[in-house]
Design goal:
The structure holds two protein chains of two kinds. Chain A is of the alpha/beta class. Chain A folds into two domains: 159 residues, no CATH class; 146 residues, Rossmann fold (3-Layer(aba) Sandwich), CATH 3.40.50. In chain A, the strands form three sheets. In chain A, strands 2-1-3-6 form a four-stranded parallel beta sheet, with helices on one face. A four-stranded parallel beta sheet of chain A has the order 9-8-10-11, sandwiched between helices. In chain A, a hairpin with a 2-residue loop joins β4 and β5. Chain A is globular, with a radius of gyration of 21 Å. By secondary structure, chain B is α/β, with parallel strands linked by helices. Chain B folds into three domains: 126 residues, Rossmann fold (3-Layer(aba) Sandwich), CATH 3.40.50; 60 residues, no CATH class; 156 residues, Rossmann fold (3-Layer(aba) Sandwich). Helix content of chain B is 54%, strand content 11%. Chain B contains 15 helices and eight strands. In chain B, β1, α1 and β2 form a beta-alpha-beta unit. In chain B, α2 crosses α3 and α13 runs parallel beside α14. The longest helix of chain B has 31 residues. Chain B is globular and about 65 Å long. In chain B, 47% of the residues are buried. Classes of the chains: A alpha/beta, B alpha/beta. Chains A and B meet through α5, α6 and α15 of A and α4 and α14 of B.
C-alpha cells in the first residue's frame, strides 16, 4: 500500500507539447529542459485528419491553417497532460519580431480550447535583455522545482541540446523530423546511389511548421524526392550563412522567420540550385510580403521558382500536377535526360 | 524635390497646410487624386495577392503620385509585429519594376515618432529653419484637430437628424472650409461656425438611436474608402456611432504624451488583460479591450473592422467571443472584393438584431 502511495507521489508532472508550429524548431531543447526538471513531456501525434477536424471549427475562418491545426493538437493533448506548454515568443533577435498569432497563441488557446489544462506561457523577448530572460525562465521552472540552480542547469542543458540539434541538421543535411525521430539514412544510402542520372537539386523554403508537417503540405518533401530530386531545406544550411544571405537582400530583418524564407531563398539561389519551391499557407501575413522579394530575386538570377500557397482545401491532385510540371520544366532547362 | 504621399482619411489636408506654410508650391507636394476604384485596381494589380488592403490602397496612391511626377514618396514605417514594416520595401521594388525612378522616405510610427516627423518635414523642405517648421507643424495639426472635432459632432447627429443627409452636407462644406483656411485663427473661426451650424440642425425628438462602437485596425477604421463609408451608412440606418480611435488622438498621444509616459490605452489594456495578456502588434489588443470597455459602458453593439488576413485582428477575432462581457460583435473584413450592397445588408441585419435585443431588455 505504501509503495503505491510512494509511486503516486513520484508520479511525474506531464507537460504537453503540441506537434505544431514551434515544435520543429525547439522540441529537443524543450524536452531536455523539462526532463532535467523532473517532468515528462507528452507530444501529440503527427497531424492527421482527426486533429485537423477537431481544431478547424474552433477557430475563426480567416485564421491560418497551421494555427487551426495547432488548436487540434492542443485538443488531442488536453486530457493527457497536467500543463500545456505554449510560449509567447515576441522576439528572438534585435528588433526582429514573431507574427502576431504566435504572440496571441496562449490567449487564443485559452479562448477557443476551454478544456485545455493550465497553460505555461512564458513571454520570451530577447530585446528586453538577458536579465529578463532569466527571470522568465526561473518563473517557468518554478512550476516544477524551487531550486534555482537546477533550473539554471536545465536551461543550460536545453541550450546545448538546441545547438547540437541545429548542428546535427546542418552538418548531415537532414530535416528536423529526421533529426528528432532519428530515422534518417545517410544520403548516400538512398536511392540516388542506384540512379545513374545526376539528381536535381531543389530547395524547399518556408516556415518549418509548413515544410515538415506532412498533413499541411501533402508529403511535399517525399514527393519531390520521389521525382529523383535532392531536397534542401532551410534547416540544412548553417544559420550564419543564412543570416549573411538575408542581410544582403533586405538588411536588418523585421521578422524572425525572414531567415527561413528570404535568407534561405537567397542562400540557395546563390548556391545555384536547379530550382526553388516556396511553400506558404494562405493568409500568412509575413509570407505575403516576403515571397515576392524571393520571387523577384529568382527572376533576376533566372532560376525556376514555384510558389505553393496551401490551405485546408488544397487538393493533392492539383498539387502533384503543379509539382510535376515544375520538375519537368527544371529538367528541360538543365537538359537532363530521363 | 517633388514629394508624393499616400492617402489616409483626411490626412492630406494637414500635410498640405504644412507644405503651404513652408512655402512649397503645388508642384513640390504631389497629392494623388482621391482614392478611387482606379487607385484600388492599380494597387490590386501590382501588389502581392495576399497583401492587406492598406498596402494595396497606398500602393495605388503612390503609383498615381508617381504618374504625376513624384520623385520622393513618403510611407509610414513601424517595427511593430504587423506587415507595416515591410510596406516600403515591397512598394519600392514594385514601383522600380514599373519603371518609376523614385526614392522612399519613412515616417517612423513606432519609435521616436515626433522626431521622425519633424526630421521628415525638415528633409523635405531643404532644411527649412526650425522657427518656421514648428509653427507650420502646429498649423497643420490644428487643422487635423479641427476636422476630427467636427466629425465627432457629425457622427452623433447623423443618427437623429430629421432631414437625412443634412449633417453630412454640412460636414462636406466644413472639410472644404477647413482645408481652405490659411491662418490659425481662420481654422478656429470656421470650426466654431460649422459646429454651431451643425448644432442648429433639426433633430428628431422621438429618436432613440442604437449606440454602436467602431473598433479595429486603424487604417480601415479611419479611411472612408477602405471601410466603404461605414459611418455614413450606419448614420443612415439611425445608429449613433462612437469611435475612440482618431487621427488627432493618435497624434496627440503618440507624438506628445506617450513620450511623457501617458498611455491613452491604459484602461483598455487593463480590461483586455484577463483575455489577452500582451500586445500582439497592430491594434489587436485595443480591439479586445475596447469591446469589454464599451460593453460595460452600455453600448448596444461593436463593429470590428479589419483588413482581410490582418494578423493582429485575427487574434482579436478569435478571442472576442470568449469574453464574459456579452455584446454583439460584427466583424467586417475589408478587401478589394467587398461590395457596398453586401455590407449594407449585413449592417441592416446587425442593427435589427441590436434593436430587438434592446426591446427585450426593456421588457
Amino acid at each position: 500500500m505504501l509503495q503505491v502511495e510512494e509511486l503516486e507521489d513520484r508520479k511525474m508532472i506531464k507537460v504537453g507539447i503540441p506537434r505544431a508550429l514551434y515544435y520543429y524548431q525547439y522540441y529537443p531543447a524543450w524536452k531536455t529542459f523539462f526532463e532535467k526538471l523532473g517532468a515528462e513531456t507528452v507530444v501529440s501525434p503527427p497531424t492527421n485528419k482527426a486533429i485537423f477536424t477537431s481544431g478547424n471549427p474552433r477557430a475563426v475562418a480567416e485564421t491560418c491553417l497551421p494555427v487551426k491545426i495547432f488548436f487540434g493538437h492542443v485538443i488531442s493533448l488536453a486530457d493527457k497532460c497536467d500543463y500545456m506548454f505554449i510560449p509567447a515568443i515576441r522576439s528572438l533577435g534585435e528588433k526582429a519580431y514573431h507574427c502576431s498569432k504566435f504572440l496571441g497563441l496562449p490567449d487564443m488557446v485559452k479562448a477557443v480550447v476551454p478544456e485545455c489544462p493550465p497553460i505555461l506561457d512564458p513571454e520570451i523577448d530577447l530585446n528586453k535583455g538577458r536579465h529578463n530572460l532569466q527571470k522568465v525562465i526561473y518563473s517557468l521552472g518554478h512550476h516544477f522545482t524551487s531550486d534555482k540552480g537546477k533550473i539554471k542547469k536545465a536551461f543550460e542543458e536545453a541550450r546545448k541540446a538546441n545547438l547540437a540539434y541545429q548542428k546535427q541538421m546542418s552538418n548531415r543535411a537532414i530535416t528536423p523530423v529526421e533529426a528528432i525521430d532519428g530515422t534518417y539514412r545517410s544520403k548516400e544510402e538512398t536511392d540516388f546511389a542506384l540512379d545513374m542520372s545526376p539528381p536535381l537539386k531543389i530547395a524547399i523554403i518556408g516556415h518549418p511548421y509548413v515544410i515538415y508537417d506532412d498533413y499541411i503540405n501533402h508529403r511535399l518533401i517525399s514527393r519531390v524526392e520521389a521525382m529523383r530530386a535532392r531536397v534542401f531545406t532551410p534547416e540544412m544550411a548553417h544559420q550564419e550563412a543564412l543570416d549573411v544571405a538575408l542581410a544582403k537582400v533586405v538588411g536588418k530583418p523585421h521578422w524572425s522567420f525572414e531567415v527561413d524564407v528570404i535568407g534561405a531563398g537567397e542562400y540557395y539561389l546563390q548556391a545555384k540550385l536547379d530550382g526553388i519551391i516556396s511553400v506558404a499557407v494562405f493568409g500568412c501575413g509575413p509570407d505575403s510580403m516576403m515571397i515576392d522579394i524571393v520571387r523577384h530575386r529568382a527572376r533576376e538570377l533566372k532560376t525556376p521558382f514555384l510558389h505553393l500557397s496551401l490551405d485546408e482545401h488544397t487538393s493533392e491532385g492539383g498539387l502533384v500536377t503543379r509539382l510535376e510540371a515544375f520538375i519537368d520544366m527544371v529538367k528541360r532547362k538543365e537538359r537532363i535526360c530521363v | 524635390m517633388r514629394v508624393g504621399i499616400p492617402h489616409f482619411g483626411n490626412v492630406y489636408i494637414p500635410v498640405k497646410a504644412i507644405a503651404q506654410k513652408l512655402g512649397a508650391s503645388d508642384k513640390e507636394l504631389i497629392i494623388p487624386p482621391p482614392t478611387s476604384q482606379r487607385t484600388l485596381d492599380l494597387g490590386v494589380k501590382y501588389s502581392p495577392v495576399e497583401a492587406c488592403l492598406p498596402f494595396k490602397l497606398t500602393l495605388g496612391n503612390l503609383i498615381e503620385a508617381s504618374e504625376l511626377g513624384a520623385e520622393v514618396l513618403v510611407q509610414a514605417r513601424g517595427t511593430g509585429i504587423c506587415r507595416l514594416g515591410y510596406y516600403s520595401k515591397n512598394q519600392e521594388q514594385i514601383l522600380h519594376d514599373l519603371g518609376y525612378n523614385i526614392r522612399f522616405v519613412h515616417l517612423d510610427v513606432s519609435h521616436h515618432k515626433i522626431w521622425s516627423f519633424l526630421k521628415l518635414v525638415k528633409d523635405m523642405t531643404n532644411n527649412a529653419p526650425w522657427h518656421k517648421i514648428i509653427p507650420a507643424g502646429y498649423f497643420g495639426l490644428s487643422k487635423l484637430f479641427a476636422l476630427d472635432k467636427v466629425e465627432k459632432v457629425v457622427r452623433k447627429l447623423r443618427a437623429v437628424e430629421l432631414e437625412k443627409g443634412k449633417a453630412n452636407q454640412i460636414y462636406r462644406e466644413a472639410i472644404r472650409a477647413i482645408a481652405g483656411a490659411t491662418e490659425g485663427k481662420e481654422v478656429k473661426r470656421v470650426t466654431k461656425e460649422y459646429i454651431e451650424k451643425l448644432n442648429r440642425v433639426l433633430k428628431d425628438p422621438k429618436a432613440d438611436p442604437v449606440k454602436v462602437s467602431i473598433v479595429g485596425e486603424i487604417f480601415v477604421v479611419l479611411d472612408p474608402f477602405a471601410n466603404m463609408d461605414i459611418e455614413l451608412e450606419l448614420g443612415k440606418l439611425g445608429v449613433e456611432v462612437k469611435r475612440t480611435m482618431s487621427l488627432s488622438r493618435w497624434v496627440k498621444y503618440s507624438l506628445f504624451l506617450n513620450p511623457l509616459g501617458i498611455d491613452e490605452w491604459k484602461e483598455v489594456h487593463k480590461a483586455a488583460m484577463p483575455y489577452l495578456k500582451r500586445d500582439v502588434g497592430g491594434d489587436g489588443w485595443e480591439s479586445v479591450g475596447e469591446k469589454i470597455v464599451h460593453a460595460r459602458e452600455g453600448y448596444d453593439g461593436i463593429i470590428h473592422l479589419a483588413p482581410f488576413t490582418c494578423m493582429p485582428e485575427i487574434v482579436a477575432q478569435n478571442i472576442m467571443p470568449s469574453t464574459r462581457e456579452n455584446i454583439p460583435v460584427l466583424t467586417v473584413l475589408c478587401d478589394e472584393q467587398m461590395a457596398k450592397p453586401g455590407m449594407i445588408t449585413r449592417l441592416e441585419a446587425f442593427v435589427d438584431l441590436l434593436k430587438f435585443r434592446r426591446k427585450r431588455r426593456r421588457i
